[in-house]
Design brief:
With 466 residues, the chain is α+β, with helices and mostly antiparallel strands. The protein has four domains: 82 residues, no CATH class; 45 residues; 162 residues, Nucleotidyltransferase, domain 5 (2-Layer Sandwich); 69 residues, no CATH class. Helix content is 38%, strand content 16%. The protein is built from 14 helices and 13 strands. A six-stranded antiparallel β-sheet has the order 8-11-12-13-10-9. Helix 1 packs across helix 8 and helix 8 runs antiparallel to helix 12. The radius of gyration is 27 Å and the shape is globular. It starts with a helix and ends in a 16-residue tail after the last helix.
Amino acid sequence: MVATQEETERKARLERARVTGLFRYSLVQELIVPGMTGRERGSRARELAGREHRGPDGSLVRVTRHTIDRWRRDYEAGGSGALVPSPRQCSPRSPAQVLDLAAALKREKPGRTAAQVRRILAATSGWAPPDRTLQRLSGRLELSAPPPAAEDVPAVSGRFECTRPNGMQTGDTLHGPVIAGDKPYLACFIDDHSRAVMGARWSGHDDVVRMAAALRPALASRGVPENVYLGNGSPFAGGWLLRGCAVLGIRLIHSRPGKPEGRGKIERFFRTVRDQFLAGIGDGSQIADLAEMNRLSDAWVQTCYHRAVHSETGEEPLARWAKAGPGQRAVPSPAALHEAFLWPETRKVTKTATVPLHGNTYQAGAWLARKTVELVFDPFDLTRIEVRLGGKPAGTAAPFIIGRHRHAKTRTPDAAPRTEPEPAGIDYLDILSGRHDDELRAQIRFTDIIGGPGITDDGRDGDGRG
């Protein structure tokens, strides 16, 4: 029982260290914007040091200018891993019975402060631990009362637009009609300057996995933006997203709760989707599955939306995006993109050098036995697990017993049986899809693929030989 409690404490320390590293990056990302001068960086650092921030434990904290600068230097020297502190490992000096009594007093009345609990303990037992010890105890046991919400200050929302493509991408989700018995969701990212669609994908769930499925192709084909602006829903609030942004050097911005005005551009795009695309498919009964939904949606975006003059910019979204220079379209390396979309989890290697993960068992290196390691993996492929010790690579964990090949969140339910609808007139979206396919075929020169202009359509050389 003691060993189990120690292991729980160790995992909790590692998790607190990881969350602390993400909190530090949320401040550092304000100071690593490309092109920022030293004067601008100093002004921004003083502004960050002059206001309160929501800390890793949910309380409001202040961070000094010196500390912020030190974190920035650490990030520039060692990346996001350098911001993760080493978890403290110290033995408690306060008697267990005193701590149990303090926890009971806090549970009895959650509004009691640490000072009040200390006075009660001192009055009953003649001794009490310091206030800070009691505060850490409450935080570890999640007994602290939530901090009072700050009153919203009325403000006037102004108009904003990035001055160049890839300055900021805005992401959100849209609910669609029922397709094959399931309700689909559109995860989408648009460029703030051009209003061009960076990535869009229909799926059966509104979660972080499907948001990643839309974001990853956008980064691979359109390049890494300086900022990503998202809401506060569950698909955007996971620590995975902040970790991925830290790996790629993206500044992650969340809109203020209850203040959705900053996402007006993507909401306007969703209105266009509803008025044009979703109106064309009606109740969705003629759509066979999500694959067909995505095919029709992509055809509509490429042949209709991207080539229509935007009412606000006065330009076609794709044409305005094309004005971006090569430096603004720089795509991440495959290795960096792979690292950004890995999921991390902390596990302890057993004495037989095996490690469990999501119902599977893996064989780690013998020298890792009884050590706590970090496992990073692709949620769509649980057959390859990378092992890291202290933030450094420690090999891979070989599959030993595999009962699940992908994370449970990546699964999609089987489609419900449906009857084929009767044909009903002209299908506008099918026309767009056919036009899009014709344009793609026209862009492909099979002579270039096969070997040059000397190859004819029947596969013979120019002199007639096969």
